[in-house]
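Human: If only I could read backbone structure tokens as easily as an amino acid sequence. Take your time, and here it is.
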Amino acid sequence: MHSTLTEHARCLYGDEYRPAPECGLDHDEHHFLEELTFADADAILTMLRALCPHLVDGHLPVRIRNLAYRLALLQRPDDVPLMREAAESLWLHGPDWDHIAADLTRRADALQAGCPGPDA
């Protein structure tokens, strides 16, 4: 078993900046998705920032990045910097998600200005 979510992702998808560790485990995306689903926001963000430190790089599939940001935001719904980071990632890997990125940016702006958004 992998000791961290980052290690599991690195074994499964590779790492643009570091070699993947030698690992004798079977790498099935289904097990990784289960681990990601129940990971805490800190573990998710550690993985994203380790494997995709500049948002446009890394070997994580876009669907995994989108899911990871969504899961982190569900745990931290009022985290303005996280909303902005997730929006930037969506814009960089869109355009299918531009409307979601724009909504995240609007919500972040409203929270930063001290005005609750429509979901409050």
User: Anything to note?
Assistant: The radius of gyration is 15 Å. The first helix runs from residue 5 to 13. The chain has six helices and no strands. Helices lie at 5-13, 29-37, 41-51, 62-75, 80-92, 98-112.
